[in-house]
Amino acid sequence: MILDTLKHHSFCLIRHGETVANRDGIIAGRLDVALTDFGRDQARALQRSDWPESMSLFCSPKERAKESCLLAFPGKDPELVAGLVERDWGIFEGRPLAELPTRELQPEAGEAWQDFLDRVGNALVYCCAAADGAIPIMVCHSGVVRAARILTGQPTVGSRAPNAKPILFRWTGDHHAEESFHP
After folding, report:
1. pLDDT for 54-69, tens place per residue?
2. How far apart are CA 60 and CA 64, in angstroms?
3. DSSP secondary structure string, the chain?
4. Tens digit of each residue's pLDDT (9 = 90 or more) over 98-116
5. Positions of the chain with pLDDT under 70
6. What is the model's pLDDT at position 5?
7. Are strands 167-171 and 11-15 parallel, antiparallel or unpaired?
8. For 46-49, which contacts have Cβ atoms below 8 Å and span 24 or more sequence positions?
9. How far apart are CA 36 and CA 33, in angstroms?
10. What is the pLDDT of residue 183?
């Protein structure tokens, strides 16, 4: 159903800049973790891109995403969308990435994979509709990118999205193609 709703919409996802959790190999999930200086530089580097004039900016309300968004798009006022928040990994948050359970298992005190997919799917649909014909640019999290891959019909979640690299989910007429976005 979400795939059908997303048909005919292209959108861009940008994972926030590097955080201390990324650097240290820690599961962040819903934790508010700070950007590193390198992560701030990554976000600022996005300013040099030639972004389309017709774009709408959306952002996860987590501090790492908001700061990345404000550094990348100074003077712009993104709409905060709660559905773009990272998956809740429950008791695993703050632990080493090596302890991350498989996606299909619901972490204790955390969010089930299907619930996460539904939440992200609804957020993507909302942002595409709210963009009203403009390209929706969403600053979010790695898990959101992985969910978007499944929601747009890709066979796997793929690899972890790089920090601060725009990824375009382009509607080709019969499917979504994921590609680097070079505005």
Report:
1. 999 999 999 999 999 9
2. 9
3. -HHHHHTT--EEEEEPPPBHHHHHTB--TTS--PBPHHHHHHHHHGGGS---SSEEEEE-SSHHHHHHHHHHSTT--PEE-GGGSPP--GGGTTSBGGGPPPTTSPPTTS--HHHHHHHHHHHHHHHHHHTTTSEEEEEE-HHHHHHHHHHTT-SS--SPPPTT--EEEEE-SSSEEEEE---
4. 999 999 999 999 999 999 9
5. 1-3, 183
6. 75
7. antiparallel
8. 46/14, 46/71, 46/72, 46/73, 46/164, 46/166, 47/71, 47/72, 47/73, 47/74, 49/166, 49/182, 49/183
9. 9
10. 65
Residue 171 identity: W
pLDDT of residue 3: 64
Neighbours of 183 (CB within 10 A): 14
